[in-house]
Amino acid sequence: MFANSVMNRRLNLYRKLPLVAIVSLAILVMATPVMTIPSSTGYMVNDWAYVLSYEEDADLESLCRYIEEETTVEIYIVTTADLEGYDINRYSYLLFNDWGIGKEDVNNGILLTFYYEDLNETHFAYDFRIEIGRGMEGAITDAEAGRIARDNFTFWFDWGYIYDGFYEGIAELYNEFADDPSVVSSEGNPVGLAAFQAWGYTNPWIAGLIIGFMLSFGFIWIQASLAKGPQCFAPLAFTVITLLFAWWWDSSLAVLFYGIIFALGGTAVLRGAGRVRPGGGRTEGGGYTRW
Amino acid sequence: MDSRQVVCIVLLGLVVVGVGAAAVIILPYNDIISQKLEAENKWSAIQIQFERKIELIPQLVTVVENYTSFEAETLAQLTSLRTQWLILNGSPSEQANVSTQLNLQLNSLFIAVQENYPTLYASALYIGLFDEITGTENRITQAKLDYNDAVTAYNTKIATFPGNLDAGMFGLQPMILYAAS
User: Fold this and answer.
1) What are the start-end ranges of the E strands in A141-197?
2) Is the ipTM of this complex over 0.90?
């Protein structure tokens, strides 16, 4: 009797275990403070506070890319209404180092952080910081950054001309380092296999088309050689190598994804089309039967 | 059971225990040591930024001296604190002490300049130096926060399993956080 009740209690406990696990997991997730720096977007202008119009955003983006092409210096803009619990100095510092702004050999990055705060319908407050990469400190000292921030950036920001402030300030920063050879990175564009990988990364659709052709070929080859015994290992190996190649080409697997899409889609369109028949034909019973 | 079988089982057990010990003791130990070295590196980063700040003081003193003869006492204090810093031999508590005094003197100087010497306060040279000192302060702050992050990671490692085994075996002590001044 006693043992039985203990066993029952234990059973009840075991039944409740998943519930307990789920509840404690939920508490854990909710109790974890969220202090994470947003990850890189691939754009140089990140207008998360929506202080720029679409045209202004695109214009600053092309300005920053032009400067990068001319001097290899990377200027990033981040506008945000949420500093993730940090102050703006720490936020800029962490985001700069997290994204790795600037080229690795000379650390020639600049981050412009604009923290926007709504006060009411008509007024806003802001904090602004110029974060200078380690290699740019010779070209733009803290004193120069301060002068440019006061005279060219915040001078316009104070009147609500966000785009004008960014444009003029970036132009002024550019003047400071434009003729400085020490900020020019010697990291060339990638060559050889790295260039091939980079091309696949930037053109996943086209690379995926190639992978798709190879996969389709591999599948057809497998089907053709299945009945021939050991010979079917060659097409199997070919397919596996194709998959590994796609993986190596783009480790984010976008190329492989598009490749499989193209292979399946191509097969469905080219080989499947004839087999999907609409139906609807009728017979009157004509013909011949052999009993 | 055959005696050879027993030997075989015992050997197998020893191998399993050995591999387990390696996994539990040696691998975390390397992690812990590399984290400790990283924290020490972050500590030296703080020192480097402090040096930068100390090097700015003579410039500030010169600029202020040229404009005014009234703040001579503060300037002398600043210079003597700088000398004190330079002859310190890296003891953290001494350093914190001098650093706090230095900040107090700097703040009083900045306020005095702002209130009493408008031409100096508005001069490009002074503004530039002020920006440099503020920027250096920010570098010191970031370096301290980085140091504390590294120390916390290290302390967490040696307080939790399996790192606590290593800490007990090799006598690893938790490192001290840089407290806010």
Assistant:
1) none
2) no
